[in-house]
Write a structure and sequence with these properties.
The chain has about 500 residues and is of the alpha+beta class. It is built from 12 helices and 25 strands. Among the domains are: about 80 residues, no CATH class; about 160 residues, no CATH class; about 80 residues, no CATH class.
Length: about 500
């Protein structure tokens, strides 16, 4: 039973039927309603936040409604609709008359036998669009059924050419994650970016991703009858991580297991950290001369590191270090880059502990022992007893000037891509290539779980574990030319 209708039987005991229906009707009509015809759960995905946006209905046009469902206007085929935030309201431009409302619903005018689609910033999406004034920005929220949402997610997170069993494992993990993340009291459940899971609209859908979703329809992952936090990442570099070693909670199903990511182009990697980058990244200490790993997890991921610079030191968590440097993972060590990257110690007085001598001071000292070219040369000193000339002063020893320390370049040598917890996408690929089915893949990466149909009555976990630190999205594609397709991954953690 949808959550929004759970109170109806109780209301019937205390209220007249008309009053009960009046309270239930908004939940049935609202975009926040959790079920559509056929019982398919609905999700709300934040597509865009900004001061303005453009929406297009393509060949069918758009229908606009207010928050109560009243039709306000319709656009013609191919007509673009401009939206902007104005005095904490949604303002439309491009119609015969401009509208200004507190809440706007936009739906495609479907052709016969079709669902229609709408385009936001030239990217097409299925379902409906809710536009809300969210503080200083508009929020454009896509409402659609979970099974309609997933073909795009699977194609956005994994190459559609991968084995079908790997795609099916991704479909079940993404379905579980999306349903576990629903937030009835918030304006949206998920983001369209890797802050939740990638969702690139209809352009990411393919026949193989649709097949993967249809072949696993309604299936989710549960542990003790509760939806799991089905986090996933690109490649662990050999072993996945225990959730408790990176985040605040050790979940029983998120434990370290061997990975099968041998084919991953980022199983091992090197990243050069140029002096200029280090100076920008650690400006508060004047750059980085070396980075020392102070503590690691049982699988070798950095827990804490010390950055030593010309003007001080920094202590950072592995997640903070990864975020600052844009590293693929925290399974990493740092080395100086090549010979001569560190200045050699100077010789002479410096080596003996004497004061440093500059080129200028050395030249000035030498001039003190030479005749002035302008003044007449002084008479040579003589022995008063014999009258013989005395030897002149001994020459100063040649003291090489100290070489200023060169800016240090480092190289990061690491393994894997992503946080390393839960399902490895490249591991799923490797297992599928070995002939394993999607359920076996899921049970390998999420230990002790069950795979079965979703029910709204399934108890959900209170929430995913909190990260040890706030981490900005760090997922990025691999270096150009390393692989012909995008490398799927997920950021270190989905922060709220």
């Amino acid at each position: 039973m949808p959550r929004s209708l759970a109170l109806i039987p109780v209301l019937r005991c205390h209220l007249p039927l008309t009053a009960a229906l009046a309270l239930a009707l908004p939940a049935l009509l609202s975009g926040a309603g959790r079920a559509q015809q056929g019982g398919e759960p609905q999700v709300r995905v934040l597509l865009l936040e900004g001061a303005s946006a453009n929406v297009n209905g393509g060949a069918t046009g758009l229908r606009l409604r207010d928050g109560r469902g009243t039709v306000l206007a319709e656009t013609g085929a191919g007509q673009s609709l401009s939206l902007r935030l104005s005095a904490f309201q949604v303002e439309t431009q491009g119609l015969s008359r401009d509208l200004r409302v507190n809440e706007l619903w936009i739906e495609p005018i479907a052709e016969a036998g079709g669902d229609g689609a709408l385009a936001v910033q030239n990217r097409r999406y299925r379902g409906r669009l809710q536009v809300l004034p969210g503080g200083s920005q508009l929020q454009l929220i896509n409402h659609l059924g979970i099974e309609t949402y997933l073909p795009s997610v699977v194609g956005s997170e994994m190459p559609a050419s991968w084995p079908q069993e790997a795609l099916r494992a991704q479909a079940v993990a993404a379905r579980t994650y999306a349903l576990q993340q629903r937030k009835p009291l918030a304006p949206f459940d998920l983001r369209a970016t890797v802050a939740s899971q990638a969702y690139k609209g209809m352009e990411a859908e393919t026949p193989s991703t649709w097949e993967a979703v249809r072949g696993t329809r309604s299936l989710v992952i549960t542990f003790q009858r509760a939806l799991v936090n089905a986090v996933f990442h690109s490649s662990s570099g050999g072993s996945t991580e225990n959730s408790g070693e990176l985040w605040s909670r050790q979940l029983p199903y998120l434990v370290s297991v061997p990975d099968f990511d041998d084919q991953s182009p980022v199983r091992t990697w090197r990243q050069v950290l140029a002096p200029e980058q280090l100076q920008r990244t650690f400006a508060e200490i004047g750059g980085a001369q070396r980075i020392e790993v102070l503590s690691s997890t049982s699988t070798g991921r950095v827990r804490q590191a010390r950055v030593v610079g010309p003007r001080g030191q920094l202590l950072l968590s592995g997640a903070e270090l990864r975020s600052r440097l844009g590293l693929k993972s925290t399974t990493v060590r740092f080395e100086p880059l090549g010979p001569g990257s560190l200045a050699e110690e100077p010789q002479g007085l410096m080596a003996l502990g004497g004061p440093p001598v500059s080129r200028w001071s050395l030249a000035r000292a030498r001039r003190l022992w030479r005749p002035d070219p302008v003044d007449p040369a002084p008479a040579a000193p003589v022995d008063s007893a014999t009258g013989e000339a005395l030897p002149g002063p001994l020459p100063l020893p040649v003291i090489p000037s100290p070489v200023p320390p060169a800016a240090t370049a480092l190289v990061a040598i690491g393994r894997g891509f992503g946080h390393g917890v839960g399902m490895s996408q490249w591991g799923a690929y490797g297992l599928a290539r070995r002939g394993e089915g999607f359920e076996a893949i899921l049970r390998h990466f999420y230990r002790g779980v069950e795979v079965g149909p979703f029910r709204e009555s399934v108890a959900q976990l209170s929430g995913p574990p909190a990260s040890v630190s706030s981490v900005a999205p760090v997922r990025s594609s691999a270096a150009a030319g390393s692989t012909p397709f995008r490398i799927p991954t997920v950021i270190a953690y989905r922060e709220r």
